[in-house]
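B., you asked whether I could sanity-check this one before it goes into the benchmark set. Here's the sequence:
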Amino acid sequence: MRVFLTGATGFIGAKVAQELIRAGHQVLGMTRSDSGAKALAMMGAEVHRAELGDLDAMRAGAAQADAVIHTAFDHDFSRYVANCEQDRRVIGALGAELKGSARPLIITSAVGIGERGNSEPAIEAVLNLDHPVPRIASELAGNDVLASGVDVRVVRLPQVHDDVKQGLVTPYVALCREKEMVAFVEEGANRWSAAPVADVARLFRLAMERGQAGERYNAVAEEGVPFHQIAKAVGRGLGKPVVSIPTEEAPSYFGWFAMFASLDMSASSAWTRSRLGWESTGPDLLDDIARMSFFLP
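And here's what the prediction gave me:
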């Protein structure tokens, strides 16, 4: 298949591009930079130059493809709500281009959207419209496009990691370095699900090849790593003290990160594994944190 891949030079998107090419697919990769274009060409992908906010250019990319995988996202979490709203517009534009065809659109969301409100891990069958994570905007946009007759499938992400980046752990490390200590809220018992980036990339491919319209897939290798364990791993890496802080002090310590610091984002991938035959074979989150260099510029 010829696949239009947004975010094709990003942390996840670059791995998806490599995964697709290895499996024999053609990749039309979106990038906004000369360096990104060079990287795509070196891996054997075609280049489509576009900015994330240029909806006409993104639609033009989708028009050339048999399938679209949308991994692009502005990861400035200090503007998370605005960035989620931008993603809503992008999904709407891509869907408008695919309307009237059988070409699938695979979009990206967060595992927390499947949280059931009973402290059990999030699951694929649930769409929790009351969940506080703003990424719900992506799934609502996907639902609108699905209702218009487009084959929309959703890959929900946990903390995606290797030994360089680890999802929300990456800005957490930067915050703790600035604060000169590593904090967690109360007992730090809230859990974050996680998966290695290479395994996540494989799931995007399987969702495209084997998935069906309206299905959601949780890219989860570990259902829930307690946040206090993450904090201790970061503390060891930074050589900083690890402390518990009360809930009322979280906003002043964490700033914009406070909404995530005590949030439970555990999730199951049992249905995804059964449905698509996906398994994770990579390292776990704490191992990758232990291997990372905490003092690179």
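One thing to flag: DSSP finds twelve helices and twelve strands in the chain. Otherwise nothing jumped out at me.
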